[in-house]
TrEMBL record:
Domain FDX-ACB: 366-498
Family: Belongs to the class-II aminoacyl-tRNA synthetase family.
Record organism: Kwoniella dendrophila CBS 6074
Catalytic activities: tRNA(Phe) + L-phenylalanine + ATP = L-phenylalanyl-tRNA(Phe) + AMP + diphosphate + H(+)
Signal peptide coordinates: none
Entry's localization field: Mitochondrion matrix
Protein's name in the database: Phenylalanine--tRNA ligase, mitochondrial
Coiled-coil portions: 193-224
Function, in words: Is responsible for the charging of tRNA(Phe) with phenylalanine in mitochondrial translation.
Main location: mitochondrion
Keywords from the UniProt entry: Aminoacyl-tRNA synthetase, ATP-binding, Coiled coil, Ligase, Mitochondrion, Nucleotide-binding, Protein biosynthesis, Transit peptide
Pfam families found in the cross-reference section: FDX-ACB, tRNA-synt_2d
Record's GO cellular component terms: mitochondrial matrix
Amino acid sequence: MASRLGPRLLTSSSRLLTCSRSRIIPTKPASSPFSRLPLSFRYQSTISTPESYKINGVTYKKDEYSNIPQNILDKLDRNLHLLPSHPISILRSIVEEHFKDYKPLIPSSSIVSVKQNFDELGFPPDHPGRSLTDSYYLNKTYMLRTHTSSHEIESYKSNLNKWLLSADVFRRDEIDSSHYPVFHQMEGTHIWENQNLNQLSKLNEELENKLKECNILIEDETKINEKTNPYQPHHIPQHTDEIVRHLKNSLNSLIFRLFGHHAKKGGEPLKVRWIEAYFPFTTPSYEVEVFWQGEWLELLGCGVVMQKTLDLSGVPDKSGWAFGLGLERLSMVLFSIPDIRLFWTEDSRFLNQFKKGEITTFQPYSKYPPCYKDMSFWLPATTSSSSSVKEVEKDHHGASAAGGKLDLGQSSITSINNNTYKAFHENDYCEIVRDVVGDLIESVTLIDEFTHPKTKRKSKCYRLNYRHMDRNLSNEEVNELQDKVQKRVVEEMGIEMR
């Protein structure tokens, strides 16, 4: 299960998008949805035209949902989690080594159906994750996965009881040092035949005896609450209690494997805290935090797998637990990497710092100065429209629920010079910035907004902070980029520069 919920519209550009560069990526056996390690390789190509996407020879016809820019298509084949000496891959390997009896799974494609990504996992029709402002769609039927949980059912169908699955996931999001439209998740699960659940008590005693040898202090006041964190119908409470106990013992052990070296150095016990949580595909559910550098850091989400998921997978006679974590988030903490963009650099000064199987502290090799530019604009003037707010929210596929950054104003749709524009959403603005600037943008921050007292028009001012990871940026090239962004947002979002 994915630990980061609420996955992230950009109107399709009329520009002709050309073929991206090709890269070598792992291939899969024809009969399996997963790649196996060791991996064989092939070239992957992506082509986008105004009519369709063509990825690895498969054509996806575009429709009103299609919203994937070329800069995202170019990242479909990077597979950072498979590069042996990359921090993300190092972390993945450590987790796989810790759970050595679990089968590693690597999905062979980033493309999944909407049914796989949302419907089968119980996401309601109005869930914000379905919004075009939050997620990348090839068309109404297919999308780039927003979480590794989209592969849960096919994984359970493989007749494996213990597996770990790693993959890149894609979400439209804000721009800052810890958010990126592509990141990597890892999830694991352990399920048992219901007739064997009585064996868990003994397994838990063994795990708890091993934990006693670890310098770890676990704070856990969670309870199974029938209103907010309930047992599942038809589950025997005693069995669920033992599944939860096994889940907690297993993950406490993993956390100590990842963070315990600092506890050994300082002598103070590693502090771990369990908190009740909600996820659509588990119950009871939990989040886990570790006390790190003076504050509590959220690590992962987990819980007892929804029986509906196992039923759909053809294993209704099994029960168990699942967890999910973000590899970038943990890697930034463990390797002391300050900016998420660094994971995507091909600079040897970054890549050569890391070795397979070792967690080492990143040594900054440069700190080039930032160059910021402010962009102030009026949102499209409100005009009469036959579309109600509810109609537009439906057209946005949950956009208004996606985090409060949808600005409806007095009217949900604005018509300017016979062009129709949807309500302003910050994710749409950030997506244009990314598409123009790429990884040269460090952050986009709203620094001012107000409403004109007479016209009632709304104004926003964003600060765009440019910084190259490997060299200085000149003011001239930043001005050129800023001008390109400005032209795009005026053309595609209907805003008026101040």
